[in-house]
Amino acid sequence: MSSDVQNTPEAPADRPPSARERILDAAGPLFYREGFRAVGVDRVIAEAGVAKATFYNHFPSKDDLIVAWIERAEGFSAAALPPDDGPTPLTAYVAAMLDVARAERCLGCTFQNTAAEFSARDHPAHAAALAVKRRVIAELERRAVLQALPEPKAVAQRLFLLLEGVWAAVRMFGPDAPLDTARDAARRLIG
Amino acid sequence: MSSDVQNTPEAPADRPPSARERILDAAGPLFYREGFRAVGVDRVIAEAGVAKATFYNHFPSKDDLIVAWIERAEGFSAAALPPDDGPTPLTAYVAAMLDVARAERCLGCTFQNTAAEFSARDHPAHAAALAVKRRVIAELERRAVLQALPEPKAVAQRLFLLLEGVWAAVRMFGPDAPLDTARDAARRLIG
DNA sequence: CAAACTACAGACAGGTCTGTCTATATGTCA
DNA sequence: TGACATATAGACAGACCTGTCTGTAGTTTG
Questions:
Q1: What would the 3-class secondary structure string for chain A be?
Q2: Which domain holds residue A171?
Q3: Which residue of A105, B14, B42, B181 has the fewest C-beta atoms within 10 A of its own C-beta?
């Protein structure tokens, strides 16, 4: 999935990043930190050092850039997943997510923010974020099966809700988010 | 709390709502359904049937309207809380929230959406939403104490994370949100 | 060399946004 | 009746938004 935007993780070579990559590199943090509607195309192209015509040559509209960024963000998070070949791959997944959430730079989940900002579920950006979340649930369930847990579907769903709450709390509270009990809560939900 | 915006729940009398109330009545659903930045002042005043000068007479700026709406929304949700004099006031609280979340019209939590749309924590709207969430945690803890649970602080925090996840999931998935296991998860977190 | 592609800078159009302003009407109270 | 507060309608300014367009430069490819 989203292999097209992750096509050069192992082959950065030595040539400079393409205009398209520079645009995405510039847009990502801006969108993540300030929101999609708050950041205009002009800011993105200024940050990327790219001409406006170049931007619209690569992305027919701002919405296309947003969707491309969402897919790229999924690629990033997928690349940061812990291995699933240990004895407790689901527990490892949850622990890794909690570490990410507790990091200083974390501002919550960009997919949640997308859904909040584009409330219509048929908006391309919302739909893309929703698809990501479905795959998260599927991954949780897959790891629950690997971990030989009974009722893997239910376990995955419970943990999904908890993790969503963790992201929301980080967005709301920042570094002071009340996450002390998150690990304990996850243990109780795994059963 | 927020008694100033809830000053007429028992005394609607028979006089028509004031201009300020009509503005808030019109703005609330628009903000909730479409987002704060997506709804302009012109839309609000058209929906409220109010002149622009009247609007800016009651609210010095759009941000002031947003904060007023957040406080009013807290008043609404506080008024819908289940009584706390039963044997399990915390369990009742969680059950009531889950019922709200499962309702057809529910689009998630407006305070979460506020934090997502105004990422800066010192923005008045974000700060107001954050204050609401702090009070939610306090209320959960208060009910945990009433329910004579050990470690009420930890229980409140765990349940808070779960409920935040429920709101986020509703915003993301809509009526298809994966909430089947939410009640079971809450039971496990209460202990 | 020539053609094709891609990048650059930046003006521009058309629309929307917040917030201010003028001017008028209505209702209340002294 | 006269003064005042509050309502109305709507034009307006200034900023910002997305997306298009003109024109130029450099680089790759046949």
A1: CCCCCCCCCCCCCCCCCCHHHHHHHHHHHHHHHHCCCCCCHHHHHHHHCCCHHHHHHHCCCHHHHHHHHHHHHHHHHHHCCCCCCCCCHHHHHHHHHHHHHHCCCCCCCHHHHHHHHCCCCCCHHHHHHHHHHHHHHHHHHHHHHHCCCCCHHHHHHHHHHHHHHHHHHHHHHHHHCCCCCHHHHHHHHHC
A2: 81-190
A3: B14
Q: Is the pLDDT confidence value at B131 over 50?
A: yes
How far is A67 from A178, CA to CA, in rounded Å?
31
- Chain A residues within 8 A of B121 when measuring between CB atoms: 174
- The gap between A49 CA and C9 C1' (Å) is 11
- pLDDT of amino acid A191: 87
pLDDT tens by residue, A78-90: 998 999 999 999 9
Q: What tokens were used for A137? A: 């649930």
For residues B54 and B85, membership in a common domain is answered with no
Q: Are residues B104 and B161 in the same domain?
A: yes
User: In terms of domains, do A126 and A154 share one?
Assistant: yes
Is A52 found in the same domain as A103? no
pLDDT score for A32: 97
Question: Which residue's CA is nearest to the C1' of nucleotide D17?
Answer: A40
Q: Is the pLDDT of residue A73 over 50?
A: yes
pLDDT at A15: 62
Residues 6+ apart with CB under 8 A from B80: B96, B100
Instruction: Tell me which residues from 54 to 83 on chain A have a beta carbon below 7 angstroms from nucleic acid strand D.
Output: 56, 60-63
One domain, residues A168 and A106: yes
Whether residues A21 and A56 share a domain: the answer is yes
Asked if residue A75 is part of any domain, the answer here is no
- B182 in any annotated domain: yes
How many domains does one find in chain B? Answer: 2
